[in-house]
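Problem 3 from the worked examples.
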Amino acid sequence: GVPRLEGITYRILPDEAARLAAIRTGEINLTSLATPTAVSLASREEGVQVVSQETTDYYLLGFNTEQAPLDDVRVRQAISLAVDRQALLDAVFFGEGQLTGPIVPTLGDWATPLDQLPFFAPDPARAAELLAEAGLEGGFELSIMASPLYPEFISIALVLQSQLQAAGITVMLDQVEWGTFIERWRERDFSAFVSFNGSGNDPDRALFPAFSTGGSVNAFQFSDPEVDRLLEEARATFDVDQRRELYQQVEQLIA
């Protein structure tokens, strides 16, 4: 019934390689690791135990929907069709994790299965058709901002660079330090970016801040009156089944 430790010392080690080295040598007793490579190395180290758990966090490619040509929904749909999400998960995270729509699968049956969401199955040929319909038959250049503070952001951007090329989209990787990333994110000074977000434990927390007009983390400047209406109705609805139906409609519209 009493503490078994004299105290706990927190050491701030921003670099994951340094955290990995410290846990492998016994310099520290507990740490968090995010990159699959570091987790794999730690799991093979004698005396180190790796505990994994699912979270409600997710990685994303965000668009500035007010900047041409990303202001054209057909261009955004084309990019979605050009991305092979499973191949990206396998390449960057060694298959660890789950594919997700607007609501993460860890929230259970609030999430719509991916095979029921439009533009989620990879189809580079249809992506090229949509770009042609949008007047971009020869493709276009897309700048993706990412910070090397999180190495997986860069890895995701590089895989996207390869995948989007098949649809005629040339990706330019814009690497910036984290402070610059945050400043440009706040100023909406980007075409696209790779980052991550957290869903919380309720679909309202997952969707309202990111997709309602003027939402607190809606850096995408996404705005849709019907999405706004459904989100407002869902957050004021007590019936669980009715709420679930409303959020499924929102997911369809966002996708």
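Problem 4, a separate protein:
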Amino acid sequence: PNAVGGFLKDKRDLGIHTEMFTTAFMDLIRCGAINGERKPVDKGIHPCAFVEGEKELYTFVSQNKNIVLRAAPDIVDPFIVAQQDHIAAINTCVEVDLTGQVCSESVGYKQIAGSGGAFCFAYGTFRAAHGKNILAFQAKNKGGQYKIKSMLTPGAVVTIPRNYVDYFVTDYGVAKLKGLSVTERAKALIAIAHPEQREELTADAKKMGLI
């Protein structure tokens, strides 16, 4: 999701409400894309729960009075997120199944992270006027594992229920799932899966009665 920042430098009057403040936000503030002036809540303010990046980022944050660190529960509160009109939440995940269920915190039974703000932002954008929830990830990770699966790995935690994701984005395309039937969802996700696995996913979907 952090990589998205590089494509937003020609935008203007964007705002931030984020759990993690990264280098991409620093770059977008510097180029004038982000100023927070159109935010209905926290106008001109860039609230976050924590900062992570290179040394230059920490210097930038410490010298910018408009960047405000707040307690994580206040940042990820879905009812606070929902107050931002047109908010687009961008997160990633561990894996997703063909119905759109999202696991963001475990590999099977092995817990590798907490749920973080993933569901909170998903629900917050669901309630926000014109809100959108986007899950962005590579179809195949560096370890060679596929992210889109016919079913979640046994024991995997459902971090985000399938009805709270609007878009799934991989390096092979975009699947807009909101409002789609189960069959349409399966076909849309197979279309953005890694080409190596699409035939197998299609066969699995037919066996499961999804398509």
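Solution to problem 4. The longest strand covers residues 132-136. Residues 66 and 194 are 41 Å apart (CA to CA).
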